[in-house]
């Protein structure tokens, strides 16, 4: 697609189908070592490159979620709006928390719901928020995205990319089954792209994850939680769940602690009602440290 060629910095988010992941384990280890040596606490400082703290399921809990994540070493959160309905909430959170980088964009799933004035509204948000990036935007041919006219998706995506270029803002891009294969990584990297990996790493076979990670230059790796979605598959006792989110009874009685990632045990698929806490970013970093 020609559109991508005209872009400046962008973040390409990586999903199941786009087999790309990154990480030079030695590099990460050395960073963690430096961080410990500098006495800045036991944990690495992390940037959650993509989450949705404005999501109606967790908006009222955002202050606690941010506080807990900051305590655990997460120093920045790129909070992505998804539709005209939530841009004001993203702005509101960013005004209360300097650690939040606001991102405004129309997500492909919500393209059909846009009003005739959506692009003007979006431009107004950028005018009023010079620190904001563009996102979440993109293309989706997955089970959810298939329901939205693809030509419409492309048009809306293109207009937002052009806006990002015009305003010189980075763009956070969602791509599911729409951009082609991992062979495109070098080309995207040359355009200035960063590749962001989520807790999906944890449900992959280790060798497959490492193969993916090797395809992306280590300095182009970002991590994201996509909270409150994308709860990483992990041992129940090592996960942080959003408190108060409805869980089936059999799970409510299990004590959630911060036990280290144990890796070898069977992974557990959480019920879809369980919500991902931004603090979980540490959980899916750990498997990457393993030799
Ligand atoms: Zn997202």
Automatic annotation (TrEMBL):
CDD domains, sorted: TatD_DNAse
Binding site for a divalent metal cation 2: 174
GO MF: hydrolase activity, acting on ester bonds; metal ion binding
Entry superkingdom: Eukaryota
Pfam families per the UniProt record, alphabetical: TatD_DNase
Residues the record lists as binding a divalent metal cation 1: 50, 52, 136, 226
Alphabetical keyword list: Metal-binding
Full protein name: Uncharacterized protein
Taxonomic lineage of the native organism: Eukaryota, Viridiplantae, Streptophyta, Embryophyta, Tracheophyta
């Amino acid at each position: 697609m020609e559109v991508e060629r005209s872009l400046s910095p962008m973040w390409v988010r990586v999903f199941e189908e786009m087999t790309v992941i990154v990480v030079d384990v030695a590099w990460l280890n050395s960073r963690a070592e430096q961080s410990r040596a500098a006495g800045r606490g036991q944990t690495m400082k992390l940037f959650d490159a993509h989450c949705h703290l404005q999501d109606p399921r967790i908006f009222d809990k955002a202050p606690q979620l941010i506080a807990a994540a900051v305590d655990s070493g997460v120093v920045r959160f790129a909070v992505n709006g998804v539709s005209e309905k939530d841009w004001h909430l993203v702005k509101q959170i960013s005004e209360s928390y300097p650690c939040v980088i606001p991102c405004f964009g129309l997500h492909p799933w919500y393209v059909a719901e846009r009003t005739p004035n959506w692009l003007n509204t979006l431009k107004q948000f950028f005018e009023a928020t010079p620190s904001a990036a563009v996102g979440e935007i993109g293309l989706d041919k997955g089970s959810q995205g298939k329901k939205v006219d693809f030509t419409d998706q492309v048009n809306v995506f293109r207009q937002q990319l052009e806006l990002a270029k015009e305003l010189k803002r980075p763009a956070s891009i969602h791509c599911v089954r729409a951009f082609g294969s991992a062979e495109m990584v070098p080309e995207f990297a040359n355009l200035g792209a960063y590749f962001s990996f989520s807790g999906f790493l944890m449900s992959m076979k280790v060798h497959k994850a490492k193969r993916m990670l090797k395809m992306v230059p280590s300095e182009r790796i970002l991590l994201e939680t996509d909270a409150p979605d994308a709860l990483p598959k992990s041992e129940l006792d090592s996960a942080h769940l959003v408190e108060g989110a409805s869980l089936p009874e059999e799970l409510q009685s299990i004590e959630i602690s911060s036990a280290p990632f144990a890796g070898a045990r069977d992974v557990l698929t959480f019920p879809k009602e369980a919500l991902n806490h931004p603090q979980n970013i540490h959980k899916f970093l750990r498997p990457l440290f393993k030799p």
